[in-house]
Amino acid sequence: MTTSSSDVVYRLRARIVKVRIAAAANAAIVSGYGRIRHLRRVIERQV
After folding, report:
1. Which terminus of the chain, N or C, has fewer Cβ atoms within 10 Å?
2. CA separation, residue 30 to residues 27, 38, 40, 41, 44 (Å)
3. Is residue 7 part of a domain?
4. Which structural domain, as residue segments, surrounds residue 27?
């Protein structure tokens, strides 16, 4: 079984997409955590 250049490119693209998704998810989790902390402060002020 020989690997063609297009197969290699496809694998590289898939890997890059996975890394991008992981980075985006990580950033979303971090920003979401910051938002939750901010909302807690606002709620504590109102109460």
Report:
1. N
2. 5, 12, 15, 17, 21
3. no
4. 15-47
Residue 2 within any structural domain of the chain: no
Instruction: Count structural domains, the chain.
Output: 1
User: Read out DSSP for the chain?
Assistant: -PPPHHHHHHHHHHHHHHHHHHHHHHHHHHHHHHHHHHHHHHHHHH-
- What per-residue confidence (pLDDT) applies to 3? 76
Each of the 47 residues of the chain gets a pLDDT tens digit; together they read 677 889 999 999 999 999 999 999 999 998 888 888 888 998 888 87
Calpha distance 12→19 (Å, rounded): 11
Domain annotation covers residue 8: no
